[in-house]
Amino acid sequence: MLITQESLMAFYQITYNKKYDFATLHNWGCTFRCPFCSYKLRGGADSKPGFMTPKPASFLTTEEIKTVLAGQRPKTVSLMGGEPSLAPDLEELLAFAKQELGAKTKLGHTNGTRIPTENLDYANVGFKAWSRDLHYRITGKPKDLIYTNFKNAWESGMQMEANLVYIPGFVGLDELEGLCRFLAELDDTIPLRISGYIPVPGQPWKRHTKKQMAEAKETAEKYLKTVEASHLTVAEALDLSMRDDRFDVDILI
Protein backbone atom coordinates (compact mmCIF):
# COMPACT_ATOMS: atom_id res chain seq x y z
CA MET A 1 0.00 0.00 0.00
CA LEU A 2 1.29 3.47 -0.87
CA ILE A 3 2.01 5.47 2.26
CA THR A 4 1.09 9.12 1.78
CA GLN A 5 1.11 12.13 4.04
CA GLU A 6 -2.67 12.02 4.22
CA SER A 7 -2.73 8.35 5.29
CA LEU A 8 -0.42 9.11 8.23
CA MET A 9 -2.48 11.95 9.66
CA ALA A 10 -3.25 10.97 13.23
CA PHE A 11 -3.36 12.28 16.78
CA TYR A 12 -0.59 11.07 19.07
CA GLN A 13 -0.89 13.12 22.27
CA ILE A 14 -3.39 15.00 24.42
CA THR A 15 -2.31 17.88 26.67
CA TYR A 16 -4.28 19.95 29.17
CA ASN A 17 -4.02 23.53 30.41
CA LYS A 18 -5.58 23.78 33.85
CA LYS A 19 -5.63 27.58 34.05
CA TYR A 20 -7.68 28.02 30.87
CA ASP A 21 -9.40 24.60 31.02
CA PHE A 22 -8.64 23.39 27.50
CA ALA A 23 -7.39 20.11 26.10
CA THR A 24 -5.32 19.92 22.93
CA LEU A 25 -5.14 16.99 20.52
CA HIS A 26 -1.76 16.96 18.76
CA ASN A 27 -1.58 15.68 15.19
CA TRP A 28 1.47 14.42 13.29
CA GLY A 29 2.13 15.20 9.63
CA CYS A 30 1.20 17.94 7.17
CA THR A 31 0.07 18.21 3.56
CA PHE A 32 2.22 21.27 2.91
CA ARG A 33 5.99 21.29 2.29
CA CYS A 34 6.87 24.79 3.48
CA PRO A 35 10.69 25.17 3.52
CA PHE A 36 10.52 27.64 6.43
CA CYS A 37 8.35 25.47 8.69
CA SER A 38 9.38 25.99 12.31
CA TYR A 39 9.23 22.24 12.92
CA LYS A 40 12.58 22.13 11.13
CA LEU A 41 13.98 23.63 14.33
CA ARG A 42 13.35 20.23 15.88
CA GLY A 43 14.02 17.99 12.89
CA GLY A 44 16.91 19.79 11.22
CA ALA A 45 17.70 20.58 7.61
CA ASP A 46 17.02 17.01 6.50
CA SER A 47 13.42 17.00 7.76
CA LYS A 48 11.22 15.34 5.16
CA PRO A 49 8.67 17.86 3.79
CA GLY A 50 5.26 17.32 5.33
CA PHE A 51 6.48 15.10 8.16
CA MET A 52 7.51 16.37 11.57
CA THR A 53 10.37 14.59 13.24
CA PRO A 54 10.80 12.61 15.30
CA LYS A 55 7.82 10.42 14.45
CA PRO A 56 5.73 9.49 17.50
CA ALA A 57 6.25 5.96 18.81
CA SER A 58 2.50 5.33 18.66
CA PHE A 59 -0.80 6.98 17.79
CA LEU A 60 -4.05 7.23 19.74
CA THR A 61 -7.23 5.44 18.73
CA THR A 62 -10.46 7.38 18.48
CA GLU A 63 -11.82 5.57 21.53
CA GLU A 64 -8.71 6.35 23.58
CA ILE A 65 -9.13 10.03 22.78
CA LYS A 66 -12.83 10.01 23.69
CA THR A 67 -12.12 8.27 27.00
CA VAL A 68 -9.49 10.82 28.02
CA LEU A 69 -11.67 13.79 27.01
CA ALA A 70 -14.69 12.36 28.81
CA GLY A 71 -12.62 11.95 31.97
CA GLN A 72 -11.30 15.52 31.85
CA ARG A 73 -14.39 17.26 30.39
CA PRO A 74 -12.52 20.41 29.30
CA LYS A 75 -14.30 23.63 28.48
CA THR A 76 -12.51 23.78 25.12
CA VAL A 77 -11.06 21.11 22.83
CA SER A 78 -8.36 22.40 20.51
CA LEU A 79 -6.70 20.53 17.65
CA MET A 80 -3.15 21.30 16.58
CA GLY A 81 -0.55 19.91 14.20
CA GLY A 82 1.16 19.36 11.94
CA GLU A 83 -2.11 19.67 10.10
CA PRO A 84 -5.03 18.46 12.24
CA SER A 85 -7.81 19.07 9.72
CA LEU A 86 -7.06 15.93 7.72
CA ALA A 87 -7.02 13.41 10.57
CA PRO A 88 -9.43 10.61 9.56
CA ASP A 89 -11.40 10.80 12.83
CA LEU A 90 -11.60 14.60 12.90
CA GLU A 91 -15.36 14.94 12.32
CA GLU A 92 -16.20 12.18 14.81
CA LEU A 93 -14.04 13.82 17.47
CA LEU A 94 -15.47 17.28 16.82
CA ALA A 95 -19.01 15.90 17.13
CA PHE A 96 -18.09 14.11 20.37
CA ALA A 97 -16.49 17.21 21.90
CA LYS A 98 -19.32 19.50 20.88
CA GLN A 99 -22.37 17.32 21.35
CA GLU A 100 -21.35 14.94 24.13
CA LEU A 101 -19.07 17.19 26.21
CA GLY A 102 -20.57 20.58 25.36
CA ALA A 103 -17.07 21.91 24.68
CA LYS A 104 -16.03 24.73 22.40
CA THR A 105 -14.09 23.29 19.46
CA LYS A 106 -11.08 24.90 17.80
CA LEU A 107 -8.60 24.30 15.05
CA GLY A 108 -5.85 26.03 16.98
CA HIS A 109 -3.71 26.16 13.87
CA THR A 110 -4.48 24.88 10.39
CA ASN A 111 -3.18 25.44 6.86
CA GLY A 112 -6.77 25.70 5.64
CA THR A 113 -6.72 22.57 3.50
CA ARG A 114 -10.00 21.57 5.12
CA ILE A 115 -12.20 23.52 7.51
CA PRO A 116 -15.27 21.55 8.59
CA THR A 117 -18.28 23.77 9.28
CA GLU A 118 -20.10 21.18 11.40
CA ASN A 119 -19.30 21.13 15.13
CA LEU A 120 -16.35 23.54 14.73
CA ASP A 121 -16.47 26.93 16.44
CA TYR A 122 -13.12 28.49 15.55
CA ALA A 123 -10.24 28.15 13.11
CA ASN A 124 -6.88 29.92 12.97
CA VAL A 125 -5.57 29.66 9.39
CA GLY A 126 -1.89 30.03 8.57
CA PHE A 127 -1.63 31.65 5.14
CA LYS A 128 1.66 31.23 3.28
CA ALA A 129 1.49 33.74 0.41
CA TRP A 130 -0.89 35.83 -1.68
CA SER A 131 0.41 35.29 -5.21
CA ARG A 132 -0.52 31.96 -6.78
CA ASP A 133 2.95 31.06 -8.01
CA LEU A 134 4.65 31.73 -4.70
CA HIS A 135 1.94 29.91 -2.76
CA TYR A 136 2.40 26.80 -4.90
CA ARG A 137 6.17 27.07 -4.73
CA ILE A 138 6.01 27.12 -0.93
CA THR A 139 3.27 24.58 -0.27
CA GLY A 140 2.89 22.38 -3.35
CA LYS A 141 -0.87 23.05 -3.15
CA PRO A 142 -3.15 25.51 -5.00
CA LYS A 143 -3.84 28.84 -3.34
CA ASP A 144 -7.53 29.08 -4.25
CA LEU A 145 -8.48 26.09 -2.08
CA ILE A 146 -7.16 27.76 1.07
CA TYR A 147 -8.64 31.19 0.46
CA THR A 148 -12.00 29.75 -0.59
CA ASN A 149 -12.16 27.52 2.50
CA PHE A 150 -11.45 30.51 4.73
CA LYS A 151 -14.14 32.59 3.03
CA ASN A 152 -16.72 29.81 3.24
CA ALA A 153 -15.99 29.18 6.91
CA TRP A 154 -16.26 32.88 7.72
CA GLU A 155 -19.54 33.19 5.86
CA SER A 156 -20.88 30.16 7.76
CA GLY A 157 -20.54 32.18 10.96
CA MET A 158 -17.40 30.54 12.31
CA GLN A 159 -14.98 32.58 14.40
CA MET A 160 -11.85 33.00 12.25
CA GLU A 161 -8.33 34.31 12.67
CA ALA A 162 -5.42 34.45 10.23
CA ASN A 163 -1.65 34.47 10.43
CA LEU A 164 1.26 34.83 8.04
CA VAL A 165 4.98 34.18 8.40
CA TYR A 166 6.70 37.36 7.23
CA ILE A 167 10.04 36.76 5.49
CA PRO A 168 11.61 39.91 4.00
CA GLY A 169 12.85 39.14 0.51
CA PHE A 170 10.62 36.09 0.13
CA VAL A 171 7.16 36.47 1.68
CA GLY A 172 7.37 40.24 1.81
CA LEU A 173 5.12 43.26 2.17
CA ASP A 174 3.39 42.73 -1.18
CA GLU A 175 2.29 39.24 -0.10
CA LEU A 176 1.16 40.54 3.28
CA GLU A 177 -0.78 43.39 1.70
CA GLY A 178 -2.59 41.05 -0.70
CA LEU A 179 -3.71 38.87 2.20
CA CYS A 180 -4.84 41.93 4.18
CA ARG A 181 -6.95 43.17 1.28
CA PHE A 182 -8.59 39.74 1.04
CA LEU A 183 -9.39 39.67 4.76
CA ALA A 184 -10.65 43.26 4.81
CA GLU A 185 -13.07 42.54 1.97
CA LEU A 186 -14.62 39.86 4.19
CA ASP A 187 -14.49 41.90 7.41
CA ASP A 188 -11.82 44.29 8.62
CA THR A 189 -12.30 43.03 12.19
CA ILE A 190 -10.81 39.60 11.39
CA PRO A 191 -7.69 39.33 13.60
CA LEU A 192 -4.32 38.86 11.89
CA ARG A 193 -1.06 37.80 13.50
CA ILE A 194 2.18 38.47 11.64
CA SER A 195 4.78 35.92 12.69
CA GLY A 196 8.36 36.97 12.16
CA TYR A 197 10.49 34.38 10.40
CA ILE A 198 12.69 32.25 12.65
CA PRO A 199 15.71 30.99 10.65
CA VAL A 200 15.56 27.23 10.21
CA PRO A 201 18.38 24.87 9.21
CA GLY A 202 19.25 24.73 5.51
CA GLN A 203 17.37 27.87 4.43
CA PRO A 204 18.91 31.12 3.10
CA TRP A 205 16.62 33.79 4.57
CA LYS A 206 17.67 36.07 7.40
CA ARG A 207 15.76 36.97 10.51
CA HIS A 208 13.76 40.17 10.17
CA THR A 209 14.71 43.34 12.03
CA LYS A 210 12.47 45.14 14.51
CA LYS A 211 12.13 47.95 11.97
CA GLN A 212 10.95 45.53 9.29
CA MET A 213 8.40 44.00 11.67
CA ALA A 214 7.11 47.44 12.58
CA GLU A 215 6.73 48.25 8.87
CA ALA A 216 4.83 45.01 8.30
CA LYS A 217 2.45 45.75 11.18
CA GLU A 218 1.84 49.28 9.91
CA THR A 219 1.09 47.90 6.44
CA ALA A 220 -1.49 45.46 7.80
CA GLU A 221 -3.12 48.12 9.98
CA LYS A 222 -4.02 50.09 6.86
CA TYR A 223 -6.60 47.38 6.18
CA LEU A 224 -7.36 45.56 9.45
CA LYS A 225 -8.37 46.72 12.91
CA THR A 226 -6.75 43.92 14.93
CA VAL A 227 -3.13 43.16 14.06
CA GLU A 228 -0.51 41.53 16.27
CA ALA A 229 3.12 40.79 15.49
CA SER A 230 5.37 38.21 17.13
CA HIS A 231 9.15 38.34 17.23
CA LEU A 232 10.13 35.01 18.79
CA THR A 233 13.64 33.76 19.36
CA VAL A 234 14.60 30.17 18.53
CA ALA A 235 14.44 29.27 22.22
CA GLU A 236 10.94 30.74 22.54
CA ALA A 237 9.79 28.92 19.41
CA LEU A 238 10.98 25.62 20.88
CA ASP A 239 9.27 26.34 24.21
CA LEU A 240 6.25 28.57 23.60
CA SER A 241 5.40 28.57 27.31
CA MET A 242 8.28 31.02 27.78
CA ARG A 243 6.11 33.68 26.12
CA ASP A 244 2.55 32.42 26.56
CA ASP A 245 1.11 30.53 29.55
CA ARG A 246 -1.47 28.86 27.34
CA PHE A 247 1.36 26.52 26.38
CA ASP A 248 2.08 25.60 29.98
CA VAL A 249 0.40 22.19 29.86
CA ASP A 250 0.30 18.73 31.37
CA ILE A 251 0.35 15.58 29.21
CA LEU A 252 -2.82 13.53 29.69
CA ILE A 253 -1.78 10.70 27.41
Question: Could you report the average pLDDT, rounded to the nearest whole number?
Answer: 88
The portion of residues forming beta strands comes to: 15-25%
Number of helices: 8
Please identify the structural class as seen in this structure.
alpha/beta
Give unreliable regions as ranges. Answer: 1-8, 44-51
Shape, principal axes of CA atoms: globular
Order of helices and strands: EEHHEHEEHHEHEHEHE
Oligomer: single chain
Helix content: 25-40%
Distance between the termini: 29 Å
Radius of gyration, in angstroms, nearest whole number: 18 Å
- State the total count of DSSP E strands: 9
Strand line-up of the largest beta sheet: 8-7-6-5-4-3-2-1-9
Biggest pleated sheet: 9 strands, mixed
Explain what you see.
The protein is an alpha/beta fold and 253 residues long. Helix content is 31%, strand content 21%. The chain contains eight helices and nine strands. It has helices at residues 40-43, 62-72, 90-100, 132-139, 143-155, 173-186, 210-221, 234-238; strands spanning 10-17, 22-28, 76-80, 104-110, 122-127, 159-166, 192-196, 227-230, 250-251. The protein has a nine-stranded mixed β-sheet with strand order 8-7-6-5-4-3-2-1-9. Helix 2 (62-72) packs parallel to helix 3 (90-100).
Main attributes of the structure:
8 helices; alpha/beta; disordered N terminus; 31% helix; 253 residues; single chain
Q: What's the structural blueprint in terms of helices and strands?
A:
Layout: E1 10-17, E2 22-28, H1 40-43, H2 62-72, E3 76-80, H3 90-100, E4 104-110, E5 122-127, H4 132-139, H5 143-155, E6 159-166, H6 173-186, E7 192-196, H7 210-221, E8 227-230, H8 234-238, E9 250-251
Parallel strand pairs: 2-3, 3-4, 4-5, 5-6, 6-7, 7-8
Antiparallel strand pairs: 1-2, 1-9
